[in-house]
Amino acid sequence: MKNNTRKSPKTPAPAPVKPTSASTKLAAAKSPRATTLKVTTAAAAMPAVKGQAPVVIAPKPDTVVATKIIAQIDIGFGNILYVRGSGGGLSWDQGLAMENATADQWRITLGKTTQPVTFKFLVNDLTWSAGEDYVIEPGSTVTLVPTF
Hints:
The protein is mainly beta. The protein folds into 2 domains: 18-59, no CATH class; 65-144, Immunoglobulins (Immunoglobulin-like, Sandwich), CATH 2.60.40.10. Helices cover 5% and strands 30% of the residues. It has 1 helix and 9 strands. Strand 6 and strand 7 (127-128) form a beta hairpin. The N and C termini lie far apart (101 Å).
């Protein structure tokens, strides 16, 4: 018995597509402004419409910054220094443990914030430091010497 099915000619595989950056796409556009625009990220450029300049969306400036607190105090072997407060991810209800950098230095980097940070130190998250609450600006790095 004869097979009557026809073989179709093989179609060539499509040529591989090379990734192009947003700046390459902008330069390829026929707009005279396309070569003068500066694109910082690929997501920042919108495709150009024929006869119009491409639309570029500038990224928002990063106004949220991390805050670093350093405490210069020896609280004794086996104890941990904590910090409680408001702003930068702090809470007045539960403390965040600080990192013991040296025998008499404790550090913590708080979450990014745009608001001032108010805080106080605690030994073992139980005993509050003496004096008023500390208040520092976002993005600050401060070294303090608390007393208990």
